[in-house]
Each structure stands twice: as C-alpha cells, then as structure tokens.
Amino acid sequence: MSIKVKNPKDSHTIMNELVLPNDTNTLNNLMGGRLLHWMDIAAAISAQKHCNRIVVTASVDNVSFKHPIKLGDVITIEAVVTRAFNTSVEVRLDVWAENIPSGSRAKSNEAYYTFVALDQDGKTVPVPELIPETVEEIELFAGALRRRQLRLILSGKMKADDAKELKALFFKE
Ligand SMILES: CCCCCCCCCCCCCCCC(=O)SCCNC(=O)CCNC(=O)[C@H](O)C(C)(C)COP(=O)(O)OP(=O)(O)OC[C@H]1O[C@@H](n2cnc3c(N)ncnc32)[C@H](O)[C@@H]1OP(=O)(O)O
C-alpha cells in the first residue's frame, strides 16, 4: 500500500476545554497533570490525522507552566505534526488560556510530544512523509531533527556521537 504524503495543515487540531472545579487545586488553579492529559489527547488526535493509525505517546519533552490557569478559564490547545520520521511523528503544542468575561488571553505553554504509529497487533508501522509548506513549518521541520536527537540521547536510544545535526549547534568545524 503506498503511503500518502501529507502537509502540516492535514494534522492541524484545535481543542477547547473549560477549567471546572474538579480540574483545580486548592488555589483554584488548573492542575498541571490535567493540562498534560488534555495536551496528550490533542496531540494524539493530530498524530492520528497524519498517520491514519493507532498512535501511542512515546515521549513528552520539557513542559513549563508560565503562569497559573484559573478556574473558569477556557483553554485552547493547538496541535500540529512538525515532522514525520520512520514510524514516529513529532507534534508541537501551543496552549492559551482565556478569561472570557474580562477578555484576557495569554499563551501558557508550548511543548513537543512524540507518537509512534502501531498496527492492530501493536507492531510499529511506517508513517506518511510530511512536507512543510510555510516558512514557520520549514523552521519547525528543521528543528525537529535536533529535538529528536536530543530526546533519543536522553532516553538512552542514541549515542551522542551519532547526533550530527545537534552537535553542529555547539561545535563549529
Ligand atoms: C484496539 C484499538 C483501540 C483504538 C482506540 C481508539 C482511540 C484512540 C485514541 C487515542 C487517544 C489517546 C492517545 C493517548 C496515547 C497514549 O497515552 S498511549 C499510552 C502511553 N504510551 C505507551 O503506552 C507507549 C509504550 N511504549 C511503547 O509501546 C514502545 O516503547 C514504542 C513507543 C512503541 C517504541 O517501541 P520500541 O520498541 O522502542 O520501538 P523502536 O523500533 O525502537 O522505535 C520505534 C520508534 O519510536 C521512537 N522512539 C522510541 N522511544 C522513543 C522516545 N523515548 N522518544 C521519542 N521517540 C522514541 C523511535 O525513534 C522510533 O521512531 P522512528 O525512527 O521509527 O521514527
């Protein structure tokens, strides 16, 4: 079966959530774990749109919480596949928190998740190629290779010596 080539817009996903009392801590702030869960779902939807397969989360890169998100805020999570490798894809997530009554809206998080496509037997399967189109998509595509090398080194799946593009950032020949 031939694998269709896809563009980032094919995986673009927007998910909204309303922060309810059960999502918050005693300071009425959204709990980090709840946000990570919502981000995982949005990223998985995006990865599935690219792969048209069952996908599993292989890794989550550094996620920092810039400021608290409050009870009653509306969360918008935007997800898009930045690069496809062999059986895995990198998904970028941008998160905004909006207080509708006051009209304030602020970016709260950015993150990269990696998903691996599996068949019905749980075996890894190749994913469609991704061709970036816009300047921003091309930049994210280029950076994805270095981010992949870093996360594979950190997870013990790649030797630092093999991370040519990542090393080039630090050592000029
Ligand atoms: C019955 C059906 C029901 C359907 C229902 C439908 C509903 C569907 C909705 C789903 C919506 C919710 C979706 C939530 C998604 C989860 O939360 S899934 C649950 C949490 N995740 C897991 O359980 C995954 C557990 N881990 C694994 O299964 C295996 O480690 C993996 C990820 C498949 C990788 O297996 P492996 O043997 O290490 O495979 P390996 O051949 O070495 O590597 C395969 C690829 O993984 C990459 N990889 C491996 N480790 C890493 C790492 N640490 N970092 C980055 N990449 C890595 C490799 O680089 C490689 O990529 P490519 O070079 O091929 O592109």
TrEMBL record:
<dbReference type="Pfam" id="PF03061">
    <property type="entry name" value="4HBT"/>
</dbReference>
<dbReference type="InterPro" id="IPR006683">
    <property type="entry name" value="Thioestr_dom"/>
</dbReference>
<protein>
    <submittedName>
        <fullName>Acyl-CoA hydrolase</fullName>
    </submittedName>
</protein>
<dbReference type="GO" id="GO:0052816">
    <property type="term" value="F:long-chain fatty acyl-CoA hydrolase activity"/>
</dbReference>
<dbReference type="InterPro" id="IPR029069">
    <property type="entry name" value="HotDog_dom_sf"/>
</dbReference>
<dbReference type="InterPro" id="IPR033120">
    <property type="entry name" value="HOTDOG_ACOT"/>
</dbReference>
<keyword id="KW-0378">Hydrolase</keyword>
<dbReference type="GO" id="GO:0009062">
    <property type="term" value="P:fatty acid catabolic process"/>
</dbReference>
<comment type="similarity">
    <text>Belongs to the acyl coenzyme A hydrolase family.</text>
</comment>
<dbReference type="GO" id="GO:0006637">
    <property type="term" value="P:acyl-CoA metabolic process"/>
</dbReference>
<dbReference type="InterPro" id="IPR040170">
    <property type="entry name" value="Cytosol_ACT"/>
</dbReference>
<dbReference type="GO" id="GO:0005829">
    <property type="term" value="C:cytosol"/>
</dbReference>
<feature type="domain" description="HotDog ACOT-type">
    <location>
        <begin position="9"/>
        <end position="121"/>
    </location>
</feature>
